[in-house]
């Protein structure tokens, strides 16, 4: 199940990776300032969740749903990585307030560089769009969805995508 909406045309934005593409590698710091590199997670599935900003309403609802259902991701041999353009300090405060135990990555500087790699950076607003990429243990994109501004992601789609990975 794939839905991909192109990112805004202005600025140095790449296209949204398609199902079957190699996931663009990156390294960002998490809420504790620790480096997290996508390539280092090979051997596990990765659920890469771009969200606009920490402490915003829809983002909080989506990430709390992930937090409350982490067993689903663990059962799917999946690591969850939340990514926004916020600083590591904002990410840490956000994670502590909401009880997130998964990594929140700071795509702070260069501003939105990883969101640009994934084609989900909106240069007009300076934020990431709501993009989700499920990457298999070999680093290949297996699921993509980019939702319009203001529209939350459908959590049931995570279940379906992870179940499909388990069957392969």
Series of H and E elements: EEEHHEHEHEEEEH
Terminus-to-terminus distance: 15 Å
How much of the residues is beta strand, in percent?
A: 15-25%
Number of helices: 5
Structural class: alpha/beta
Major β-sheet profile: 5 strands, mixed
Q: Calculate the mean pLDDT score and round it.
A: 91
Fill in the keyword field for this structure.
168 residues, alpha/beta, five-stranded mixed β-sheet, two-stranded antiparallel ribbon, globular
Please give a quick description of this structure.
The protein has 5 helices and 9 strands, in the order βββααβαβαββββα.
What does this structure look like?
With 168 residues, the protein is an alpha/beta fold. It contains five helices and nine strands. The protein has helices at residues 57-68, 70-75, 88-98, 113-117, 155-167, and strands spanning 27-29, 35-37, 45-50, 78-84, 103-106, 121-122, 127-128, 130-135, 141-147. The protein has a five-stranded mixed β-sheet with strand order 5-4-3-8-9. Strands 1-2 form a two-stranded antiparallel ribbon. Strands 6-7 form a two-stranded antiparallel ribbon. The model is unreliable at 1-13 (pLDDT under 50).
Helices and strands in order, then pairings?
Elements lengths: L26 E3 L5 E3 L7 E6 L6 H12 L1 H6 L2 E7 L3 H11 L4 E4 L6 H5 L3 E2 L4 E2 L1 E6 L5 E7 L7 H13 L1
Parallel strand pairs: 3-4, 4-5
Antiparallel strand pairs: 1-2, 3-8, 6-7, 8-9
